[in-house]
Amino acid sequence: MIASICRRQLLRLRQIPSAAGINPSRPNPSDALLSHACSSAALVGVPVSKPCPTTISYLISCGLPPAAASACKRRIRSTAKADAVRALFRTYGFTDADITEVVRRKAWILTLDPDRILRPKLDLFASLRIKPRRLATAPNLLDRSLDKHLLPRIQFLRGIIGSDGDVGSAIYRAPRALQVDLDKRMRPVVDALRRLGLPDKSISKLLTIEMSVLTLSVDRITQIFDDVKVLGLGVTDTGFVYGIRLFCNLSRETWLRKVALYRSFGVSEGDLQKAIKRQPTILHLSDENIKKKLRFFLDDLKFELSEVMERPVLIDYSLEKTIIPRCAVISVLMRERKIDPNIKLPSALLGSAKGFSKRYVLRHAQDVPDVVKAYEGKIAFEGFRDGDVLVPLKP
Predict the structure, then answer these.
(1) CA-closest candidate to residue 132, choices 90, 167, 192, 71
(2) Are the beta carbons of 194 and 203 closer than 8 angstroms?
(3) What tens digit of pLDDT does each residue of 192-217 get?
(4) CA separation for the pair 111, 41 (Å, rounded)
(5) 355 CB contacts (<8 Å, ≥6 apart)?
(6) Cβ atoms within 10 A of the Cβ of 226, count?
(7) What InterPro entries does the annotation carry (predicted)?
């Protein structure tokens, strides 16, 4: 029945002369219509149960694996238009990998009019300096109405955040937040932040660094405020914004589990509260990461627990990329008698990469070339010496 309806509809359409004087019964090579089996059904809006070979073939040419291409539910009626869309993306700096990511996430984008629909949106995001690679991870934004959706939300953000540079940074960090409803979500969240006492300057900062807060419910925002206040932070404290940022991405259950993990190492409630207040991101680390770092500090470096918790940024540093290379440098300098073996190691490990390099690597690079090798990971850190005896790391 469906097949006969499709054939009759297709025959009727072929009898209608084209406006350009082209016989529509003859295929247009540049348009590359889908095979008869899927295009005829598509003409009357009938869903096709089998994947369309032409669509699959085209999506594979875009870089999609066959399984993903076969799973696509959309039909590409014109490969010429799809080619034009891909060409447009390239003019805006999208790489082939970026375009593949767009197609993987939203193949429907290939069916949109490149100049009328896509170009104005790409111009908008380019003016906000949002890199193509980031936009490729949120192609739904390109499917939204420019006048009814994107511009009203961006104008709203401008009124709170300020400069287009900061608005662009906010969108870059959380592009999906731009999809939420303006009146049902964005405005109520900002109103709630103000009602709970957060200054406008802090709201601007919060949206710049964590715009995903706009995706939360007002009830969740209220709960987050209560959780941050438990850390001893007030709404006017600089750290309050970062506390909100932390809990935006951390469920209450996860927070309580991580608190229990730190407590299992013997950290007191008061010391943990102070540490989180100074460095909220120590709750963002995975459980295994926390265990690994604390065991290294306590068992291998023989730090006191209080020394670590007084400097919680140490827990936030990468063990492999920061802590261990710095330990290797200091170990080499101790071996060469270039620094006091009784140096306060917890404090020595602190600071930016540039500061540490200037203080311990560049200063001694001429006399002790091994410090450079140690900093680059070419000399393994095996432990510190107690006098002339090496105290090796635990296996």
Answers:
(1) 90
(2) yes
(3) 999 999 999 999 999 999 999 999 99
(4) 18
(5) none
(6) 11
(7) MTERF, MTERF_sf
